[in-house]
């Protein structure tokens, strides 16, 4: 059973102030716009699920600040650009899903240095 909300807006930058937040799941919500760099302030997050929306633009390099992140799912959006090399700082990351976007360039070699990475979907 999905959660098929249709908010038809982006994520407010003020979400970056929710510093005690541990899990953010806004998958399948009809969200659009760019991913706010302020999400990089959510250093206590262990899960960030934003799949199946209509986000555009690049993955913010500030996502490398999410050092407690275990799961990052940005699949099925319209993201562009390259995978930021700052993701090397996500040493606890177990799942990375970026499939079905418009990401280009090479896969950063640093992803191979992530000691806990178990699932990668590009």
Largest sheet: 5 strands, parallel
Write the H/E string, N to C: EEEEEEEEE
Helix content: under 10%
Name the beta content range.
Answer: 15-25%
Physical arrangement of strands within the biggest beta sheet: 1-3-5-7-9
Q: Kindly name the structural category.
A: mainly beta
| CATH-defined topology of the domain at 51-122 | Leucine-rich repeat, LRR (right-handed beta-alpha superhelix)
Low-pLDDT ranges: none
CATH architecture of the domain at 51-122: Alpha-Beta Horseshoe
Question: What characteristic shape results from the CA principal axes?
Answer: globular
What value does the Rg take, in angstroms? Answer: 13 Å
Determine the mean pLDDT.
92
> How many individual helices?
0
Q: Mind sketching the topology for me?
A:
Layout: E1 23-25, E2 32-34, E3 47-49, E4 54-57, E5 71-73, E6 78-81, E7 95-97, E8 102-103, E9 119-121
Parallel strand pairs: 1-3, 2-4, 3-5, 4-6, 5-7, 6-8, 7-9
Structural description of this entry:
With 122 residues, this protein is mainly beta. The protein has a domain of 72 residues: Leucine-rich repeat, LRR (right-handed beta-alpha superhelix) (Alpha-Beta Horseshoe). It is built from no helices and nine strands. The radius of gyration is 13 Å and the shape is globular. The model has no long low-confidence stretch (mean pLDDT 92).
